[in-house]
């Protein structure tokens, strides 16, 4: 008898009786992981080339595609500037609150339903780029929460239930006046202009801040720009 197939975030898993439910629960416990100190040190980068001694020395962290459900240990990375944890099963952004120097956050393709309040985001005085696409975010009020981030320039919310709301882009533009781009669109004073990717693919600004973070090479280059 084959094992239960795990669902992607947002999908449902059906079982046949309580025995099947227990089996799925056990398999999930084996599948999901927590971001421990060993993982963070192996996936992090500091200003130097030597081994990472303390989590608080990590400036760049890429823990994407690690089957993570818990990133609470990230709260110990006090000097973190770039944090990438897309394609996991994370639902809580609170552990990031101890890293006020963050400039780029990629939380896309997770299980995030709720966005922390405006006070939470007001602590990120350097945050410029926030990827939230492909999450089960549905509440239009989350756009008001993000107004707390005073320097947020780029945000992605496509492939979310929220993006199905015809007014969400209009609300975002008129709520976050400091935004320069939403999803694959630039924002002008008069209108939202769709970006033609071939025309900007060689632009370093867009490579670093708008293109999906699976292009880790570009984000690695970003370290030299953001460690000042």
UniProtKB/TrEMBL annotation:
UniProt-annotated stretches for the region Disordered: 1-22
Signal peptide region: none
Database matches in SUPFAM superfamilies: L domain-like
Name of the featured protein: Leucine-rich repeat-containing protein 51
């Amino acid at each position: 008898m084959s094992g239960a197939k795990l669902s992607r975030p947002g999908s449902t898993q059906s079982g046949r009786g309580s025995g099947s439910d227990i089996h799925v629960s056990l398999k999930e416990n084996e599948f999901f992981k927590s971001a421990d100190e060993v993982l963070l040190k192996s996936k992090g980068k500091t200003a130097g080339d030597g081994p990472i001694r303390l989590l608080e020395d990590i400036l760049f962290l890429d823990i994407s595609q690690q089957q993570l459900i818990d990133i609470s240990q990230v709260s110990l990375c006090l000097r973190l500037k770039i944090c990438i944890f897309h394609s996991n099963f994370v639902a809580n952004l609170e552990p990031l609150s101890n890293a006020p120097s963050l400039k780029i956050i990629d939380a896309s393709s997770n299980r995030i339903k709720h966005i922390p309040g405006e006070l939470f985001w007001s602590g990120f005085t350097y945050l410029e780029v926030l990827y939230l696409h492909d999450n089960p975010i549905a509440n239009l009020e989350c756009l008001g929460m993000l107004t707390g981030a005073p320097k947020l320039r780029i945000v992605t919310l496509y492939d979310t239930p929220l993006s199905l709301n015809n007014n969400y882009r209009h609300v975002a533009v008129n709520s976050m006046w400091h935004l320069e781009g939403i999803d694959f669109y630039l924002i002008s004073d008069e209108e939202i202009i769709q970006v033609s990717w071939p025309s900007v693919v060689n632009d370093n600004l867009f490579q670093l801040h708008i293109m999906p973070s699976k292009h880790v090479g570009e984000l690695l280059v970003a370290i030299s720009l953001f460690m000042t």
